[in-house]
Amino acid sequence: MQYIKRIRELREDNDYTQREVAALLSVGQRTYADYEYGKTRIPLDSMIVLAKFYNVDMNYICGISNVKNSFPKK
C-alpha cells in the first residue's frame, strides 16, 4: 500500500496538518489519520481530490511511478 506513505509525504512536504487535509476531504482528523496509518482504506474519490490538491497524478500517489507528473487537465 504505497499510497499510505505517499499521502503522508505529500502532506508533510506541503506543511499541512492532518486536520487541514481532513477538512479538505470532509472527514474528521481521526479518519484521515486512519488513512495515513493504513487502518482504513482511503476512498477513490478522496484519492482523486488529494491528487488534484497536490497537483500530482494518480500514478504517483498510488506508487506506480516515482515521477511527480502534474494532475491531468481536461
TrEMBL record:
Could you tell me which Gene3D superfamilies the record lists for this protein? lambda repressor-like DNA-binding domains
Alphabetical list of PROSITE patterns matching this protein: HTH_CROC1
Identify the InterPro entries for this entry: Cro/C1-type_HTH (IPR001387), Lambda_DNA-bd_dom_sf (IPR010982)
Name listed for the protein in its UniProt record = HTH cro/C1-type domain-containing protein
Q: Tell me, what is one Gene Ontology molecular-function annotation carried by this entry?
A: DNA binding
**Domain HTH cro/C1-type stretches:** 7-61
* SMART domains attached to this UniProt entry: HTH_XRE
Pfam families, sorted:
HTH_3 (PF01381)
Superkingdom: Bacteria
Key words, A-Z: DNA-binding
